[in-house]
Amino acid sequence: MNAAGAFKRTLSPYLRRHAERSDDLFGGAWLTRYRPLTDERIEGAILGKAILAYFAAYSPRALGIDIDDHAGRGPAVLRAKYDAVRERFGGLSPSLVCLSPRGIHLWYLVPWPMPWEILRAQAEEKLRGLGVELRPTPGLALRIPHESGLVDPETLLPLRRDFVAVVGEAIRYHPAELFNADILPAVLRSDLATRQGRYATIRYSVAIGQAEAELAPILPGTTNDALCRLVPLYRGAGLSEEETGQRFADLLVPFYDGELRDSGRLRKRIRSFYRHAPEPRPRAVQHGLFTHPMAEAVAKSAVDTLTARLPIGRRRALRRSQVQRSFRRLAAGILAWDDFVAAVRAAPRERALWNYLYPYFVKNTREGYCPLPRSVLRRIDPHYNRHLADLVACGFLSPAPYPYVPGAGIARYYRIARERFGAG
């Protein structure tokens, strides 16, 4: 594996844009380049031929921490902050450490992709008050580590070794080693179920994802409109003022240097929204929960299927209109849920979060299957079990060939035959 491959596999960069250092008469600046971060450019940055910075993917395998000496107080201050970071992580040394012009960049690696929202929330709690910064994020870039700057995580002495070898031997920590059991999917699912979680509730996730996609990156002159639209959504989703501030800051275009780049000023504005702004209603899914233009055709087909398998005597006693209304309600609810799941898949942040909380969500939905948890079906119809088999028999639902593992958050998945019952 070459250096670029090792970098991508280990630090999970977002590859569709990056930042580049541009030196000019005014001292230089970081400029965001909205073009692919190629292997050649990555290789050049690692070898010191270029100065580039990368943004984090929405599901990185690394937590980056930036320790800077902005006041020029000397190496002792940097070392003290570095030791304080290690202490907050139970004495565990970072996986990778690289010197930067103004400080130290360090990374804690994990064996598998983790949603950035979860990593950030847990890391902020750990590092509160230390004066260090979490970078990179999906909105804030960090300099690509250069091979000559790699140092030993214990001694901070130069390694003078090949980048690929250093990365290959770097320790990967189980997330529970760094953050205790609070970060495990089962614990987070339990918190969400009891409405004690710290992450956006399901009813707001689509609205937040759509708003962020439309507004990002937030440009100078548009920050007030963005605050008015996003902060009430974050508040309604249950995010704290600190989490809202960090999420909003991630969306600011990198060259923005207005007042909201100051974290204190941003928190003050957000606090005002939290005190006075009314809670918005989340955007509804495309159709109401119990109405859908395709539901009537599904209900008729399901009733015909049910009638065909009943004895002649029972067919006469069947109240077709009543049963058809029940089928229509269940089918409409499933179709509305499928619309909602499609919207979640289209929002990178929410897709990453769902795939962590509910394993195989991305894989199974990519194959055309929709999760139908019992909790969702019960909200649509407390007696859904009496009709589900007929929805399968009439061809509306086709079970996925994957096991149902409720303890692991793996629901039953079904393919929904929209094409058979209309365009929907």
Notes on the protein architecture:
With 424 residues, the chain is of the alpha+beta class. It has three domains: 3-180, DNA primase, PRIM domain, CATH 3.90.920; 200-276; 295-421, no CATH class. The protein is built from 19 helices and eleven strands. The two termini are 47 Å apart. The strands form three sheets. A four-stranded antiparallel beta sheet has the order 2-1-3-8. Helices cover 47% and strands 12% of the residues. The chain has helices at 3-11, 39-46, 75-88, 116-127, 163-169, 175-179, 185-193, 202-215, 223-236, 241-251, 263-276, 295-308, 312-317, 320-346, 348-357, 361-366, 374-380, 385-393, 418-421, and strands at 13-22, 29-33, 52-56, 62-68, 96-100, 103-109, 133-134, 142-143, 369-371, 397-399, 413-416.
The helix count comes to 19
Overall mean pLDDT score?
84
Question: Largest beta sheet: what is the strand line-up?
Answer: 2-1-3-8
Number of strands: 11
Tally of domains: 3
For this structure, the CATH topology of the largest domain is DNA primase, PRIM domain
The helix/strand order is HEEHEEHEEHEEHHHHHHHHHHHHEHHEEH
Radius of gyration using CA atoms only: 26 Å
- In angstroms, what separates the terminal alpha carbons? 47 Å
The percentage of residues in β strands lies in: 5-15%
Q: What is the annotated CATH architecture of the largest domain?
A: Alpha-Beta Complex
Class inferred from helices and paired strands:
alpha+beta
Poorly predicted regions:
195-201, 281-289
User: Into which percent range does the helicity of residues fall?
Assistant: 40-55%
Query: CATH first level of the largest domain: which class?
Result: Alpha Beta
Largest sheet: 4 strands, antiparallel
So what's the overall shape? elongated
